[in-house]
Amino acid sequence: MMDSLDTLLGNGHTRPRAGRKVLVLFGTRPELIKLAPVIAELRQQNYRPLVVSSSQHKGLLAPFLKSLNVDVDIDLDVMKADQSPNDVLSNVIAGLDRILVDEMPDVVLVQGDTTTTLAGALAAFNRKIPVGHVEAGLRSGDIASPFPEEANRRLITLIASFHFAATEQNRQNLLDEGVSDRQIFVTGNTVVDSLHAMLDRLRVSDEITDLIAETAGQKRILLTTHRRESFGDAMSRNLEVLARFVERHENVSLIFPVHPNPNVRAATEAILAGRDRVHLLEPLDHSDFLALMKASWLVVSDSGGVQEEAPSLGKPLLVLRENTERPEGIAAGVSKLVGSDAARLEELLEENYADPAWIDSVKQIPNPFGDGTASRRIVEALRSHFAPKTEPEVARTVSL
Ligand code: UDP
What we know:
Strand content: 5-15%
CATH class of the largest domain: Alpha Beta
Shape: globular
Mean pLDDT: 93
Order of helices and strands: HEHEHEHEHEHEHEHHEHEHEHEHEHEHHH
CATH architecture of the largest domain: 3-Layer(aba) Sandwich
Bound molecules: uridine-5'-diphosphate
Low-confidence stretches: 391-400
Distance between the termini: 13 Å
Number of helices: 17
Strand order of the largest sheet: 3-2-1-4-5-6-7
Structural class: alpha/beta
Number of strands: 13
């Protein structure tokens, strides 16, 4: 499969080595968090990153651009009210196509599994520009969940030339689907690089500093939930369990930065508003969020990125999902899968309140998702690919 992809894409590029142009595309908060350290590393290693935002989630992105020091060169500005995946897909492909023609990048880097990611990969593939997929090889095993992300991941795998896998398990998933080993690079997840950079220059707002002071001595639960699969009854039942748990235990508080999605807002308002020791916040910038995670007793989340970050801070996490494409956290003992039954969430909360053994043990476990060097490994893999064909390292490179 991949050999014919090599043939299709031709045999390299004519641009002089010093001017290699790498188009980096993102559209949502997690993509930006995970690509910011790659952009910084590209600059550091004298590449010319061309930073393109689709603005799929415009409002959520804006504060992060500032705190992560990312300057957008081109904004496709696709976001509109009630957008469907097809709106985003078609608008990103149309907007990006013009840029690909004008700018002729040597490679396009996309991250993860959003509709922006798929659109970027498709647009580049159709222009015969090699695609580098950051965070390749995640699989839930269920094409319907997460939707449409699982399908996006698999489709991107088919058309990418470089697969930057975070873990060995991700590499294995790719090999199982017939991806050639020489096109897979196990790098760790760049979210860990981003987290390290942010911890080095943590700037906590007054609001969060005050909240941490106000809840001192409490067992803080940090909650995030916003995935489509969680909407409706599943989300309401989980929020009810959390509300009851906080009510029963006077030394527990719940801190929840509420995602702007109207489904999340409505359920939260109905179930959690106005309760003692429940703190409902607007989405936080990364610094504030990590400061709260550091101060938490337990994290409860359906987020992918949060599953990968929590172990770097030694924090135990209950995964509010039926399945997870990040089983490494469960295998390592840093997270537990709640599944679809809210009663199980209640059980896990009570169990761990009564017996701190698991929560204490997590502090000692290294993060299975990365060590903070992923961005460097990604850029080195690109460098090796672009190296003149006479250099010895060529044997390890991909010929496109
Ligand atoms: N995050 C944040 N502020 C918040 C909630 C989350 O900075 O209020 C960060 C979090 O640290 C993680 C990322 O957003 O790096 C996760 O994004 P999200 O949950 O939106 O997406 P997912 O990871 O599920 O794709």
